[in-house]
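in:
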């Protein structure tokens, strides 16, 4: 347990972390990778270049300092990060290395302000927080390894078939090369896909939501080609999958992970909201609800630029025809003439609260949403304005967690 004096010292650094948090984490990653370049094998290089990972870590450090006198308050965040760590293969031996360079970065950035007292308190706090991560992740590793069809680390899967779902999204059906059973998963969970491109020095790992119901002899991931319309360097794995992978290609997969999952014990209506490729976990939830919980009302709302970028519309429409408890609503920002003629959508422009209230039968429901961060911020704000309790609002980020509210650290 952290001493009372150390708690007071840590709390005194909160204002400093507000100002210098991202600077500290940027320097931390520089120190970490220059001294341990092998760890680049487990980090998302694009998130590093864009600064997303640095900001996410800064927010996590800030939250830890803010709640240092009640670390139980950040256990949900520890578990969320723990799922990601388990899917990436982060192990206990990594934590002393991370602690060494995080403390080094704090001291370097704060300079004379980083007194021996402050550094000692942070070293003590880091040890306790690291132990919490290690303990939770140990349970996750054991549970994953011991479950039926489970495995440790990464397992070879073969692409059985590829289905084009839109102009930029394709589904990949993955079967285990050893032909043995595969682990079940909860609707909303993801797998990590690890590749090493020819000539590349390091592996690349990305998480992709599973986009079908559990219990099939395959896993399905539906992947957007990130470089399709934009001149940028990210999307290394998605581009590889779209350009180089084909039927028969081997991919290395982690066992399913993630805590953004459908609460199947809740019998109230469900509202699933998605933007762009954010529909992938929603499709898994939708398929699960219609297949296993046919009495539970579902409202499925999806936003896309236009029909050409709208994946799985035919499948969702077919489900709506078969299941009267399911209603579907589409919002297109820039519908094409064909979209207008074929009436592919229900609203032109962007989702707003007034429209949500017009298509959702009642406020008393459980809400799940995923998509680009600006989309999620609008949905989150709309639901809050409507008075939806925070406990009924569930969302998932693709990549490092950000904030849907104005952030404290910058």
């Amino acid at each position: 347990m952290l001493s009372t004096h150390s708690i007071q010292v840590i709390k005194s650094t909160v204002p400093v972390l507000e100002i210098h948090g991202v600077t500290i984490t940027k320097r931390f990653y520089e120190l970490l990778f220059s001294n341990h370049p092998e760890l680049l094998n487990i980090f998302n290089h694009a998130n590093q270049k864009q600064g997303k990972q640095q900001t996410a870590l800064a927010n996590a450090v800030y939250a830890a300092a803010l709640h240092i006198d009640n670390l139980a308050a950040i256990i949900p965040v520890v578990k969320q990060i723990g799922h990601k760590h388990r899917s990436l293969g982060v192990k206990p031996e990594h934590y002393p290395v991370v602690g060494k360079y995080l403390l080094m970065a704090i001291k370097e950035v704060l300079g004379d302000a980083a007194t021996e007292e402050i550094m000692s308190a942070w070293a003590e706090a880091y040890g306790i927080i690291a132990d919490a991560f290690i303990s939770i992740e140990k349970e996750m590793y054991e549970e994953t390894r011991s479950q039926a069809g489970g495995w440790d680390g990464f397992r070879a899967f073969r692409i059985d078939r590829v289905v084009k779902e839109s102009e930029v999204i394709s589904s990949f059906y993955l079967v285990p090369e050893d032909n043995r059973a595969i682990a079940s998963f909860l609707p909303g969970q993801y797998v990590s896909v690890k590749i090493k491109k020819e000539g590349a020095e390091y592996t690349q790992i990305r998480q992709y939501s599973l986009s079908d119901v559990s219990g099939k002899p395959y896993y399905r991931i539906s992947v957007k080609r990130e470089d399709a319309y934009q001149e940028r360097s990210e999307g290394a794995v998605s581009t590889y999958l779209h350009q180089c992978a084909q039927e028969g290609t081997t991919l290395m997969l982690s066992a399913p992970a993630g805590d953004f999952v459908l609460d199947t014990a809740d019998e109230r209506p469900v509202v699933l909201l998605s933007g762009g490729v954010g529909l992938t976990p929603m499709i898994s939830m939708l398929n699960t609800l219609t297949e296993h919980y046919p009495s539970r009302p579902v409202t499925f709302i999806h936003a896309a630029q236009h029909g050409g970028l709208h994946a799985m519309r035919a499948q969702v429409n077919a489900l709506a025809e078969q299941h009267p408890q399911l209603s579907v609503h589409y919002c297109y920002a820039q519908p094409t003439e064909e979209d207008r003629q074929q009436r592919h959508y229900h609203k032109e422009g962007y989702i707003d609260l007034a429209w949500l209230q017009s298509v959702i039968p009642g406020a008393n429901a459980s809400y799940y949403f995923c998509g680009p961060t600006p989309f999620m911020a609008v949905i989150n704000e709309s639901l809050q304005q409507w008075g939806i309790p925070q406990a009924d609002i569930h969302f998932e980020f693709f990549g490092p967690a950000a904030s849907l509210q104005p952030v404290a650290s910058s």
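note: DSSP finds 13 helices and twelve strands in the chain.
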